Amino acid sequence: AAITSAAANANGFSAHASGAGSDVVYGLAQCRGDLDLTEGCYPCIQEATQEIRLDCPGASDAQIWYDHCTIRYSLANFFGTFDASQKSVTYNREDYPDSEALSSQLGILFDDLTKKAADPASRGFAKGHVDLNDHTLYGTAQCTTDLRPEDCAQCLDAAVKQFDYTCKPKEGCRVFFSSCSVRYELYEITSRHEKFGPHKIRS
């Protein structure tokens, strides 16, 4: 509850530890950087909190991703640590017919988004678009706000590589790591509610 309320009141991000001694639990909550806190962020965090309590009881480390938010808790202190060991990838069914153009424009788009998201002034979030033949290619990139700029850039670089490994030549793809996420689509990625998720990892 402390994480949920703090995330809604602190620009959509909160990292909080509770307990004492060997009973400390570390929790993090973050919303997508372009969301309205009241209408988009807080409802997503509430839903994710309920979901992780139901599906991950007793887990020592658990994380849940929605398109609009993520929450994680662990018995180990992960704050400020770049973590790409856990991931979730989902992609559209349709293939884009010109895979070389898609790959080229993804590189251009996410080189720019990675630089912007790693800038401390951006609070870890960037979105943008580039032309792709007769289409427009849209993208978002986000790191958890506790990461250093160089760790944010490293995490996003690793996430973007998953486009070639897993998603190419799909028309859209989302990659979620514990510390960052990237997404591209052939339609504008808006802040309106999208019922995507949850994706969960627990141990």
UniProtKB/TrEMBL annotation:
<feature type="domain" description="Gnk2-homologous">
    <location>
        <begin position="84"/>
        <end position="189"/>
    </location>
</feature>
<comment type="similarity">
    <text>Belongs to the cysteine-rich repeat secretory protein family.</text>
</comment>
<keyword id="KW-0677">Repeat</keyword>
<dbReference type="Pfam" id="PF01657">
    <property type="entry name" value="Stress-antifung"/>
</dbReference>
<dbReference type="InterPro" id="IPR038408">
    <property type="entry name" value="GNK2_sf"/>
</dbReference>
<dbReference type="GO" id="GO:0005576">
    <property type="term" value="C:extracellular region"/>
</dbReference>
<protein>
    <recommendedName>
        <fullName>Gnk2-homologous domain-containing protein</fullName>
    </recommendedName>
</protein>
<feature type="domain" description="Gnk2-homologous">
    <location>
        <begin position="1"/>
        <end position="78"/>
    </location>
</feature>
<keyword id="KW-0732">Signal</keyword>
<keyword id="KW-0964">Secreted</keyword>
<dbReference type="InterPro" id="IPR050581">
    <property type="entry name" value="CRR_secretory_protein"/>
</dbReference>
<dbReference type="InterPro" id="IPR002902">
    <property type="entry name" value="GNK2"/>
</dbReference>
